[in-house]
Amino acid sequence: MKRKLIGRSIRKEFNGWWAISLIGATVILLPILFVFSSLFFKPNENWFHIREYLLGTYVKETLILVISTGALTAILGVTLAWLVTMYDFPLKRFFRWALILPLAIPPYIAAYTYRSMLSYTGVIQATLRNEFGYQMNPEWLNISSLRGAVFIFTLFLYPYVFLITRSFLEHQSASFFENARLLGRKPFFIFLKVVLPLSRPAVVGGVVLVIYEVLSDYGVTSYFGIHTITTAIFQTWFGMYDVNTAMRLAAWLMLIVVGMFIIERLLRSRQRYHLPAKSRPLAAMKLKGMGAAAAFIYCTLVFLAGFFIPFVQLIAWAVLTFDKVWNDTFFTLVYQTLYVALISTLIIIVVAVIVANVCRKQTAVSYFLAKWITTGYSVPGAIIAIGVLAIFIGLDQWLAPIYEMMGMADAPLILSLSIVMLITGYVIRFMATGYNAIEVGFEKVGTKYTEASRMLGSGVTKTFFKVDLPMIKGAIFSGFILTFVEICKELPLALLLRPFNFETLSTKTYQFAKDERIHEASVSSLIIIAISALSIVVLQMVNKKVKE
Amino acid sequence: MKIVDVQDLVFSFSSEGEPVINGVSITIMKDEIVGVLGPSGSGKSTMLRLIAGLEMPWQGSIYIAEKPVVADKLFVQPENRGVGMVFQDYALFPHMTVGENILFGLSRLPRKERKPRVAEMLELVKMGEFAERYPHELSGGQQQRIALARALAPKPNVLLMDEPFSNLDADLKAEIREDLRVILKKANITCMIVTHDRADVEAICDRSIEMGQREKIG
Ligand SMILES: Nc1ncnc2c1ncn2[C@@H]1O[C@H](COP(=O)(O)OP(=O)(O)OP(=O)(O)O)[C@@H](O)[C@H]1O
Ligand SMILES: [Mg+2]
């Protein structure tokens, strides 16, 4: 009876769509599993050395970075979100969206911009010295430290918390807060006792995004000379070409991620931040005098430091170096970046659409498939990079006899020196970005049109092209843009998986900065910032549509 | 001829808990119009979805026009059952015109016969001049007629309708009820209509069946 039922279920549900989905999911999970499997290999001397003398520092600095950044982004994000939703003060409508802009500047670009601005020859010390005759202790402005990294991450990643908390607060029913006000409570008390506990799941959600970014980071930390597990993974590979030890480090990093995941679950304590349907929107309270001034100054400072100042500085440098940088080599760079991003995004969107389509029918299997296909987003880039690298090297060894047969014995590394490796990395890492957008699209449309189409005699595939696809066009478009932008910005994967001599905008920017050719990095930085701004615009558009 | 033959059907949405459909058998003969009555939650919609092939029963068998569609290891996909359905909220494809909506189900008809069939269906539901409109440009009653025309166009063995009147206001209802009976009889179609309202059954149906009297909890 049971077996008959299973046989019949497979007959009902299984088709080419499922087959492709399962293959895609396997490819995505393989590198991550491979990293874990390294724990069972016999470790070598490098590993004993690292474990004995270095691992402690790596773990300590990683944790300090994650915890401080997490706490500070929470404070900054929540207070700003609270101000722009609950109060009226000068330029509030502007700040409401302008405070998202720091997200357009990738932290590694911010890091080199700030370090250069704060250096002895940088704009701040130079002005103080020349205009005011004031010689500052250079130590005060030394940003190449753990503290400096926390500063950069906080200032440029807090918008994750800000965005989620703001949209959460904006959707809350006014009555919560008005009741508290009518009961004669002071706004600060309301903030502490009503807003914070209520928005905890939203805040935790935002902070988790920040922490994933920090754990994935290689640009800021390596530039500032900080020893995290991620930088160690890179150094082990670039310095010693020791994949196995790098994988062991990656497995350690994975443990931290799993720990974070468990803590997140506990903090959310089964609360989901679902948005209540329709409720009376909150009427903002008008701030006067000192209060208005304080709110205005706070928002202005964050906006200046988090976007305006570095942005203007980059433009100034770009004007200086434009003629030198803007040439054929640069166009090749832009072309290569867009080309690789385009191919990866197309693959992601096609796979995401196929998987999301089979996961519309909610079963236990489809639940796991959806989780599975989106794992890449909660796994730091360095782990994926090293897993993909190890698998490609393994593939090349395995295929060596075939290469030889084809007369390529002198080139034993084919796959692991090709662009395929980088594209694979991107696809695994950013599958979730595309998938989530498309899943939302399918959810909005529901299943009734699909069912109607099948009742009219069209099979799964014809239904997909004639009915489903036209209806999720918008979701595909926004998924495409968001994924494309993420890939253009990405640094660690690109650094580790790119073919020899292959540069993207982000790797070239990083290279310039590392070689202390700061000014020359500005043009490519600005292009990256412009591309990122595009995704913010798309997100805002999508949000608006959802509201309507 | 038995057009719908359901034997001892058992179905549940999850492996725990009591089945929604528990050992139901239904037989419907050719050209019958049968009303399906029963309290809310008694599994009327689920029954239609099982016959349509949108859900899979755990036990029992279903025959459509004397051919098995669910039996033993067999499961025939919804598109191959020759069953038509009018959805509660019509589910007209918003990106297609009225004409294209009706044409959609005619892919198995020879190309030459498709256009005339669309015209014939529009004529049947008295919507001849609306072929170029989009669904959102129609009133609720008009949308329902188009949904009916679309479902009838491929000449299904049986037509399933889930609460066809629930989205219409009371004035419209009496009028449309009469039209519906005329259309269904003209089309010579076997039909199952789920409804809450005994008056619907009396006005349209030849007979009715009652779905399981499940005790309501609380
Ligand atoms: N997708 C689903 N998942 C889980 N349970 C469901 C699902 N759809 C329906 N049910 C449950 O199955 C039972 C039968 O539902 P069904 O929709 O068939 O009832 P109905 O007779 O059509 O009711 P109504 O007259 O209100 O439309 C109900 O108890 C319902 O809660
Ligand atoms: Mg129902």
From TrEMBL, chain B:
<keyword id="KW-0408">Iron</keyword>
<keyword id="KW-0547">Nucleotide-binding</keyword>
<dbReference type="InterPro" id="IPR017871">
    <property type="entry name" value="ABC_transporter-like_CS"/>
</dbReference>
<dbReference type="InterPro" id="IPR027417">
    <property type="entry name" value="P-loop_NTPase"/>
</dbReference>
<dbReference type="Pfam" id="PF00005">
    <property type="entry name" value="ABC_tran"/>
</dbReference>
<dbReference type="InterPro" id="IPR003439">
    <property type="entry name" value="ABC_transporter-like_ATP-bd"/>
</dbReference>
<dbReference type="GO" id="GO:0016887">
    <property type="term" value="F:ATP hydrolysis activity"/>
</dbReference>
<dbReference type="InterPro" id="IPR003593">
    <property type="entry name" value="AAA+_ATPase"/>
</dbReference>
<feature type="domain" description="ABC transporter">
    <location>
        <begin position="4"/>
        <end position="217"/>
    </location>
</feature>
<dbReference type="InterPro" id="IPR050093">
    <property type="entry name" value="ABC_SmlMolc_Importer"/>
</dbReference>
<keyword id="KW-0472">Membrane</keyword>
<dbReference type="GO" id="GO:0015408">
    <property type="term" value="F:ABC-type ferric iron transporter activity"/>
</dbReference>
<keyword id="KW-0067">ATP-binding</keyword>
<dbReference type="InterPro" id="IPR015853">
    <property type="entry name" value="ABC_transpr_FbpC"/>
</dbReference>
<keyword id="KW-0406">Ion transport</keyword>
<keyword id="KW-1003">Cell membrane</keyword>
<dbReference type="GO" id="GO:0016020">
    <property type="term" value="C:membrane"/>
</dbReference>
<dbReference type="GO" id="GO:0005524">
    <property type="term" value="F:ATP binding"/>
</dbReference>
<keyword id="KW-0410">Iron transport</keyword>
<protein>
    <submittedName>
        <fullName>ABC transporter</fullName>
    </submittedName>
</protein>
<keyword id="KW-0813">Transport</keyword>
